[in-house]
Structure prediction request, 80 residues.
Amino acid sequence: MYYLAITYDICEHNNLVEEMNEYRLEPGVDFEQQLIKLAKKDIAPLIKVYQSITSDFKEVTLYKEYTFKDYECKCHREKG
Prediction:
């Protein structure tokens, strides 16, 4: 299997869901550690991982969604 991670920026306050970047995940490298690094790099609260049986990713299916609370938009919180 081949895996493709897509990072997303989300702001519920502004009804924004924006695709940012695509990354091919490295086989044999810890899956979740790769995702943690990608979330930090893009400051992404959401990463969707897709899988494909071929390396060209012509046919993909959603494998799993990962959320990262540390990178959620905070614009809706009141300023104190």
DSSP finds one helix and four strands in the chain. The mean pLDDT is 91.
